[in-house]
Amino acid sequence: MNLNQTFTISDEVICQVLDDESVLLDLASENYLGLDEVGTRIWQLIDDGETMRSVVATMLDEYDTNEDTLVGDLDKFLNDLQAQGLITPVG
């Protein structure tokens, strides 16, 4: 994972936050995706234009996890979002 990478969210995605979780609707595919509290927080940081380095730092500060586990999980999560066309790397 490139920690200097940022992502843009597809214009075709609508996000609705419900408590600490969220539901994403991809208008292009008409698919829904539910995000738990952690996924929702990552989504918010991506939406704010944060670099992955900043996302990792924020998540380490806010959640009880180690960096290696976090980076691995974040990489998988981002790959899943990209595969579904919900986010696109910038640059």
Descriptive notes:
This protein is an alpha+beta fold and 91 residues long. The protein has a single domain, classed as Outer Surface Protein A, domain 3, CATH 3.90.930. It has three helices and five strands. It has a three-stranded antiparallel beta sheet with strand order 2-3-4. The radius of gyration is 13 Å and the shape is globular.
Quick rundown:
The protein is α+β, with helices and mostly antiparallel strands and 91 residues long.
Gross morphology: globular
Mean pLDDT equals 96
Order of helices and strands: EEEEHHHE
CATH class equals Alpha Beta
How many beta-strand elements? Answer: 5
The share of residues in helices is 40-55%
CATH structural fold name:
Outer Surface Protein A, domain 3
Residue fraction in strands = 25-35%
How do the strands of the widest beta sheet line up side by side? 2-3-4
Low-confidence stretches: none
Give the key terms.
alpha+beta; 91 residues; three-stranded antiparallel sheet
Write the layout of secondary structure elements.
Blueprint: E1 7-9, E2 13-18, E3 21-26, E4 31-35, H1 37-47, H2 52-62, H3 67-83, E5 87-89
Antiparallel strand pairs: 1-5, 2-3, 3-4
Helix pairs in contact: 1-2
